[in-house]
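Study this:
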Amino acid sequence: MTTDWLQANLDNPDLVLIDASMVNVIGKEPIVYDAPVFIPGSYRIDLEGTLCDTESPQVHAFPTEAQFTAEARRLGIGPDSQVVLYDNQGIYSAPRAWWIFRAMGVDQVFVLDGGLPQWLAEGRDTVSAPVAEAANPGSVMGKFDRTRVRDSDYVFQHLDDEQVIVLDARSRARFLAQAPEPRPGVRGGHIPNSLNLPFSEVLAGYRFKPEDELSDTFARLAPSLQPGKEAQLVFSCGSGITACIILLAGELAGYDRLSLYDGSWADWGSNEALPVA
């Protein structure tokens, strides 16, 4: 979604605008603000708390249906809502929130291209605090589509399946075990047969690259990979956050059989029973 569209629709009663920024930013130099800044009318969600299954041993585990339903209803989300997500880094954690909403059955959900930095660069209005909760509770019921989120068992079972391609959003140095992992107890390297697409390569500044450039990027990565073919793309990263950046880039490039390896390398790299390349 563009900033122009959002500006024109800030008073749309069906709009649910959500700041999905994270406190912990890994894999890039974070943008730091002197004071809290929000787009007018924004709600705030906590991807590391309220929308994370904290009872799971996995880092940044996907929320439960009950967690998602409670949060979506707090935000007043109903069947006619148009949910727009953004974050304060440009494109970082908003795609993770987008995929959570999609996996839980909310189809009218979008990411603000460029996020808060783009909004600020264009001189648009801001406020210092988010809206606490919707005046009227929403009616959305989360229904988790498990084909959109994979685990290590699924990835391991398909290591030699040419129709299942794992794309890793970490830096090239981490992918090749030439740089240390930020989490203790996690081995260096990557999932065997996976391909490396650092999330920075699908971005231009704060925004996604144009769709034709994204298509070229995916085509260069795997020449046999074409939109509309049978291949299932599974996206991975350090813990399941930045993987969603390249997942959204894949959708923009025309791919539709997409899923997230939740837990990603923090899960795989810490399990000594799983192979590492």
Remarks:
- Residues 57 and 186 are 14 Å apart (CA to CA).
- The chain has a mean pLDDT of 94.
- The radius of gyration is 18 Å.
